[in-house]
Every structure is written in structure tokens, then in C-alpha cells.
């Protein structure tokens, strides 16, 4: 508690971590994906609602299902990545609140009747959870390649049965189309030989104000 991680860890997670498009031939095990979730789950979300859902695409078959939705520049880097995760959000996240936020029993009702609040809450917190995924992946020695260049409607139809009631369907991770994609993130061990020089960031004075 209150103890800074060491400089080497800060390099690994932030200063030396890069966005990768090419990958070393080193697999990512399912055990690593479990370890990844077991870390990222602890990142905070509003009312502990945890609206993000993560579909880890590991097989050639799963990647081929994604291919038609990818922007052309994102095809090769995604098809060659050991894993691509669809960071998504469940607009019925409030159904889990009795478990996740039990001391406030009325809170689910607040969301049930307010679709705009549901969408804003799910989008905001699943984006945060996607960032926790990137930080956790780097802490575990993985590299990431986040992407927003894809057709969200196609992904939601293909993986989350959007618009198609899927009663009794046991093939999809998330039946009945109440899960929506937010962004994609390739995971693996990046090939450092292919990196371009790092782009600058805004300085403290450009991005921050002290009030
Ligand atoms: C939400 C998000 C969406 C992105 N979308 C794409 C994308 O569609 N295609 C792509 O090649 N890179 C994409 N990027 C990668 C960024 O361009 C990259 O992370 C940024 O330039 C920083 O690079 P660095 O981590 O190597 O410093 C995306 C990054 C984020 C966080």
C-alpha cells in the first residue's frame, strides 16, 4: 500500500512499452490469458459494475470470422497475432449488480430505465477495463496492438449475435445481442526489429493544468 513500483516496472509498463504490428513466433497460452484477466479484473469501475466482456480469439477459425470486419491496414497484423481480444461491453451489465454491488440493492433499477446512462456507463468503464488489459498485459511481459479500425456492426453480428435472438445458442460467448464491441487488441510477443521511432507525446504543460 502506498509503495511505488520500481523504475524497471515503469519502463516495462509505460516508457519502453510499444504498440506492435509484427509478432515473434511465440504462443500465448490460455493460462497466460487467465492470468491476464485475474489482474485486470481488479481495475476500478463505476459501482464496481465491470461491464467489459473479453472474447479472446486464438484459433485460425476465430480469426477468419473476424477478417471481414477488419480495416485493410489491420488485417495482416491481426491475422498473424497469437491472440486478438475483442474488448466489448454488456449493456445488461446491471443484471450483475446484486452480486457486484450488493450493499446498494436499488441501483440496478436506475440503469434498467435509462438506456443513455447504460450506454455511457458501459462505454466509459469498458474503455477503462481495456486500458487495464493493456497495462496488465505489459506487466506480464506481453505486447499489445490496440485497434479501432474495424466494422463494429459486423463484429457484433458475427460474435455477439447482434439483432439475432439466439435462444439456447451455446456456440456464442454472449447470446442475444446485448454485447457490443468497443475496440480490438492484438496480444503476443512483439518483434522489436520492426518498430518505427517512437512518436512524441504532449508535454505536461500542453496536456495538464494545475488548478
Ligand atoms: C483505441 C486505440 C485504437 C487504435 N487503432 C489503431 C488501428 O486501428 N490501427 C493501427 O495500426 N493502430 C491503432 N492504434 C495504435 C496507435 O496508433 C498507437 O498505440 C500509438 O501511435 C502509440 O504508439 P506507441 O505505443 O508505439 O508509442 C490504436 C491505439 C488505440 C489505443
Shape estimate: globular
Decide which structural class fits the backbone: alpha+beta
Along the chain, the helix and strand elements come as: HHEHHEHHHEHEH
Our measurement of the CA-to-CA distance between the termini, rounded to an integer number of angstroms, reads 27 Å
Strand arrangement within the widest β-sheet reads 1-2-4-3
Bound compounds: flavin mononucleotide
Estimate the helix proportion, in percent: 25-40%
Gyration radius (Cα, Å) is 18 Å
User: How large a portion of the residues is in β-strands, by DSSP E?
Assistant: 5-15%
User: Poorly predicted ranges (pLDDT <50, ≥5 residues)?
Assistant: 167-174
Can you count the beta strands? 4
Give the rounded overall mean pLDDT.
94
Largest sheet: 4 strands, antiparallel
Summed up, the helix count is 9
List keywords for this structure.
211 residues; alpha+beta; four-stranded antiparallel beta sheet; 9 helices; 4 strands; globular; binds flavin mononucleotide
Plain-language structure description:
This protein has 211 residues and is of the alpha+beta class. The chain has nine helices and four strands; from the N terminus they run ααβααβαααβαβα. The protein has helices spanning 7-15, 30-40, 60-66, 75-79, 97-100, 107-112, 115-139, 152-160, 204-207, and strands at residues 52-57, 83-90, 143-147, 179-188. The protein has a four-stranded antiparallel beta sheet with strand order 1-2-4-3, with helices on both faces. α1 (7-15) packs across α7 and α2 (30-40) crosses α7 (115-139). It is globular, with a radius of gyration of 18 Å.
Amino acid at each position: 500500500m502506498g509503495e511505488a513500483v520500481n523504475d524497471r516496472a515503469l519502463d516495462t509498463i509505460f516508457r519502453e512499452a510499444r504498440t506492435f504490428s509484427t509478432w515473434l513466433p511465440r504462443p500465448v497460452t490460455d493460462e497466460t490469458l487467465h492470468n491476464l484477466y485475474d489482474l485486470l479484473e481488479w481495475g476500478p469501475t463505476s459501482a464496481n459494475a465491470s461491464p467489459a466482456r473479453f472474447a479472446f480469439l486464438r484459433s485460425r477459425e476465430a480469426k477468419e470470422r473476424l477478417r471481414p470486419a477488419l480495416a485493410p491496414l489491420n488485417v495482416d497484423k491481426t491475422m498473424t497475432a497469437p491472440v486478438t481480444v475483442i474488448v466489448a461491453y454488456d449493456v445488461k451489465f446491471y443484471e450483475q449488480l446484486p452480486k457486484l454491488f450488493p450493499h446498494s440493492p436499488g441501483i440496478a433499477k436506475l440503469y434498467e430505465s435509462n438506456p443513455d446512462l447504460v450506454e455511457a456507463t458501459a462505454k466509459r468503464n469498458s474503455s477503462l477495463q481495456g486500458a487495464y488489459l493493456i497495462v496488465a498485459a505489459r506487466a506480464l511481459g506481453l505486447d499489445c496492438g490496440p485497434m479501432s479500425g474495424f466494422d463494429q456492426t459486423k463484429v457484433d453480428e458475427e460474435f455477439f449475435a447482434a439483432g439475432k435472438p439466439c435462444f439456447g445458442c451455446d456456440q456464442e460467448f454472449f447470446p442475444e445481442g446485448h454485447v457490443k464491441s468497443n475496440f480490438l487488441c492484438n496480444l503476443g510477443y512483439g518483434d522489436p526489429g520492426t518498430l518505427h521511432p517512437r512518436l512524441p507525446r504532449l508535454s505536461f504543460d500542453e496536456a495538464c493544468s494545475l488548478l
